[in-house]
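Intended use. Records like the one below are meant for learning the mapping from a protein sequence to its folded structure. Do not use them to infer anything beyond what is encoded.
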Amino acid sequence: MNRSIVVGLAKLLVISVCWSAPVSGAQEPAPAKVSSESVDKPAAAYRLDFSVNEIDESKRVNTRQYSMNLNAGDANALKIGTRVPVEAKQGEFQYIDVGTNIWAKLKERDNNLMLEVRAEISNFAIPDQANRSNSMPLLRQIQINGSTVVFPGKLTAIGSVDDPNSKRQFQLEVTVTRLK
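Structure written out for the chain above:
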């Protein structure tokens, strides 16, 4: 019986030594390497200055200016205008946005700045309709959507459209400036 106790203790001693000792040839895991590509670099900040130009027979008659700040990789929007109630069914109203909506997304890719823009400009075809809620308003709308490469500090035309009811043309331009 003493021999079985001694053998059991010997086995227990061998197991505990093997358990706590490192296995030969085994290596501890190497610390994870952090490559410069996997580290997020801080996003560059930009200011976008938009101009909506109204041109009548080659003469600029009106310009509206809009600005937004935007981080590369993000999107932003600005909205200026009025929400007009329109009766859809008897006693049920829906709202229509009338004014200027500009949405922009800026991406840095291969040392270039890629800008995607959606712009919608609407107003009342008959200015008096802005003050009357009992009639269905007649709206004029211009949409310019585009995607292009932009260069900081340079004026870039996003698009232009002719007004089908007049000799006027509308242009959307942007200047992108990197903020420090």
